[in-house]
Amino acid sequence: MATIIDGKSLAQKLRSEIKEEVYHYLNSGERPPHLAAILVGDDGASKTYVASKERDCDFVGFDSTVHRLPSDITENELLKLIESINSNEDIDGLIVQLPLPKHINSSVVTDSINPEIDVDGFHTINVGRLTKNEDTYISATPFGVIKMLEEYGIETKGKHCVVIGRSNIVGRPMSILMSRGGYPGESTVTICHRYTENLKSHTYVADIVIVAVGIPHFLKGDMVKEGAVVIDVGITRVDSDNNKGYKLVGDADFDSLLDKSSAITPVPGGVGPMTRYGLLYNTLKSYKRKLNL
Ligand code: NAD
Q1: Same domain, yes or no, for 110 and 145?
Q2: Which residues belong to the active site?
């Protein structure tokens, strides 16, 4: 039976540590850390994510500002708003919730954020720093996964890690982090994606499988070897007759993997809460850097 990696409790513990640290700064007369978020349009999942980020800020004692913009806002108007936030000395972190409407170029937008307050770590400069293993803001999800592996003491050195998914926000940075020097890292990494042939031949020889494809129950028990560590990044909303009308489902087929793996993250309660922690961590990092704390 696998160890169930409890991202929810771990994130709670780590959030409380941030809260204590902030309390200490406020008591010594400093201003609170401040995270600004921009939400364009009214996508349900994006609204939920931004609302939870606001709640997290509130819990740890950060100020937060959410700019809610209509979906027909022009790219230029959005860039102007980002420019004004970039020049506000009292803002420590700025995130633009993705996805953006099709008429707006996400790449231009993320690269318009001042890299020093780009706490999502999506700016090209921060991606470059990550690639060179330099100090940077590691984007929240890969950061959360790394922190989880560290806190659970999972061995990564010399291990074979298979990352399924190659997106800029999850799979790609995840693969870079797992192969970098230091702990967690030093793994031999294979990246699989939609054109990978015979996926099972890769996943079956992996010591660690990180799955981020967005297809419910994609990774089955018969695709991994006995004792593999399974990290499930996927979150898909599927209809449910509960009071919300939907439930969250991961990419890993938890039931068939539970007996096979040595450790596994559940959905919900695994990587998701750790991602939320990652954003708080990065915002605090920017704040401390700005105020020389
Ligand atoms: P994406 O759509 O950008 O990328 C999906 C990747 O999966 C692609 O690289 C694609 O090549 C690969 N893929 C698709 N079908 C495949 C197949 N049949 N075999 C192998 N690879 C295949 O998605 P993303 O933004 O990386 O997100 C992936 C999942 O992670 C989604 O469910 C998303 O909601 C979730 N997510 C969770 C968190 C979190 O906090 N837990 C954060 C970000 C994303």
Answers
A1: no
A2: 53, 97, 120
Ligand 1 centre to CA of 215 (Å) is 8
Q: Which residues of the chain have pLDDT under 50?
A: none
Does any domain span residue 37?
yes
CA-nearest residue, atom 17 of ligand 1: 194
17 phi and psi, to 5 degrees?
-65, -40
Give the distance (Å) from ligand 1 centre to CA of residue 259. 25
Secondary structure percentages of the chain, helix, strand, coil, to 5: 40, 15, 40
- Asked if the peptide bond before residue 101 counts as cis, ω within 30 degrees of 0, the response is no
Q: Choose one of 10, 194, 274 to mutate for the ligand 1 pocket test, by most ligand atoms within 8 angstroms of C-beta.
A: 194
Residue 231: φ, ψ to 5° = -110, 115
DSSP letter assigned to residue 223: G
Per residue in 87-130, pLDDT (tens digit) is 999 999 999 999 999 999 999 999 999 999 999 999 999 999 99
170 Cβ below 6 A of ligand 1: yes
Q: Please give the residue range of the domain that contains residue 54.
A: 30-114
Assigned domain for 188 exists: yes
Query: Mind listing the pLDDT tens digit for each residue in 214-244?
Result: 999 999 999 999 999 999 999 999 999 999 9
Residue 175 CA, ligand 1 centroid: distance in Å: 13
